[in-house]
């Protein structure tokens, strides 16, 4: 039987392969230089972090049978969609924005963990899209809750609590960090 290799790469959050992005890395933290978009004139925020999860997968088939399945999942920061007000940007606000990116990485790890439990079949595209949609919904809810509970970093006690919680959660999913 002839082997057929199908490779599908999908990018989300409006991303394209040509859009500038920073892939999450535990050793590299965001700096204000990473925030390249002009500040919004209609927002009350001091800064906005645009981040998202991209994924791709490859399926190798032999006839109707899937013989190999591999994936990539990454958390990205989008500099050209992220901004801050220079006069108000400080290390505390930057740490708040970094944690938004860290939350995105946490959900990328959860996505990778869910993929390991996937029983891949001929509907792999729908399976992956369904998983991704659920993860995106969860990460968006968490990002909103984070901003609400920390009052966009103004509640210092809650900000510290979130930082601790996210670091603990990232460690729980250590086995699923990107290679």
Cα shape: elongated
Rg to the nearest angstrom?
A: 18 Å
Structural class: alpha+beta
Pattern of helices and strands = EEEEEEHHH
| Average predicted local confidence, pLDDT | 89
Measured by DSSP, the beta-strand proportion falls in: 15-25%
pLDDT < 50 stretches: 1-16
Number of beta-strand segments: 6
Coiled coil: 121-148
Keywords: Coiled coil
Pfam families: DUF922 (PF06037)
Secondary-structure blueprint:
Layout: E1 3-10, E2 22-23, E3 47-48, E4 51-62, E5 65-77, E6 83-84, H1 91-116, H2 124-150, H3 156-172
Antiparallel strand pairs: 1-4, 2-5, 3-6, 4-5
Helix pairs in contact: 1-2, 1-3
Pfam family, one: DUF922
Keywords: Coiled coil
InterPro entries: DUF922 (IPR010321)
Description of the structure:
The chain has one domain. It is built from three helices and six strands. The protein is α+β, with helices and mostly antiparallel strands. The strands form two sheets. A four-stranded antiparallel beta sheet has the order 1-4-5-2, with helices on one face. A two-stranded antiparallel ribbon has the order 3-6. The radius of gyration is 18 Å and the shape is elongated. The N terminus is likely disordered. The longest helix is centred in the C-terminal third of the chain and has 27 residues. Helix content is 39%, strand content 22%.
């Amino acid at each position: 039987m002839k082997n057929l290799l199908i490779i599908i790469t999908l990018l989300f959050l409006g991303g394209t392969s040509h859009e500038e992005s920073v892939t999450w890395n535990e050793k590299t933290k965001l700096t204000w230089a990473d925030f390249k978009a002009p500040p919004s004139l209609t927002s009350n925020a001091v800064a906005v972090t645009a981040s998202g999860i991209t994924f791709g997968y490859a399926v190798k088939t032999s006839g109707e049978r899937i013989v190999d399945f591999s994936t990539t999942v990454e958390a990205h920061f989008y500099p050209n969609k992220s901004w801050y007000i220079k006069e108000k940007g400080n290390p505390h606000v930057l740490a708040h924005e970094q944690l938004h990116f860290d939350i995105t990485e946490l959900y990328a790890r959860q996505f990778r963990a869910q993929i390991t439990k996937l029983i891949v079949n001929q509907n792999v595209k729908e399976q992956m899209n369904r998983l991704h949609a659920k993860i995106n919904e969860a990460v968006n809810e968490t990002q909103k809750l984070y901003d609400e509970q920390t009052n966009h970093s103004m509640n210092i006690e809650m900000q510290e609590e979130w930082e601790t919680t996210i670091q603990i959660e990232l460690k729980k999913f250590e086995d699923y960090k990107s290679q």
